[in-house]
Write a structure and sequence with these properties.
about 0% strand
């Protein structure tokens, strides 16, 4: 949205500022304003991620652990249990009605990120 405003705002500089050097400097500052803001946001996110990673083991690894548990339950239900049943061994299955929404939510977030990259929303 800011990119669409930069052209008209820089065009207004011609009407109000006579000095070409000052006009070029202001046009450059306006043109790079969105990039500077994006960089500030990225640096703030990096600082937040670094602070999150410094927590104890549970704070820094609960998301991966949740994913591992969901994938393990999926593997038991759809790989281990059917293979073991072929040998006459009964393996209890996990309740996937609770686990699948969590797993699909985690996978869906990754899918949305990929969709945004393909559409060029986030580079």
């Amino acid at each position: 949205m800011l990119d669409k405003l930069i052209g008209p705002v820089t065009g207004l500089l011609d009407k109000f500022i006579e000095d070409k050097d000052q006009k070029a400097q202001l046009a450059h500052e306006i043109g790079t304003m969105a990039e500077k803001h994006g960089q500030e946001i990225a640096l703030a996110q990096i600082a937040l991620n670094t602070a999150d990673a410094k927590g104890n083991w549970f704070q820094s690894s609960w998301r991966p652990l949740c994913g591992h548990i969901c994938v393990l339950g999926l593997a038991v239900n759809f790989l281990v249990s059917p293979i073991a049943a072929g040998f006459g061994v009964t393996v209890p299955q996990a309740d996937m009605s609770v686990m699948m929404p969590v797993l699909m939510g985690m996978l869906g977030l990754g899918g949305l990120r990929s969709f945004e990259r393909v559409k060029g929303v986030i580079k």
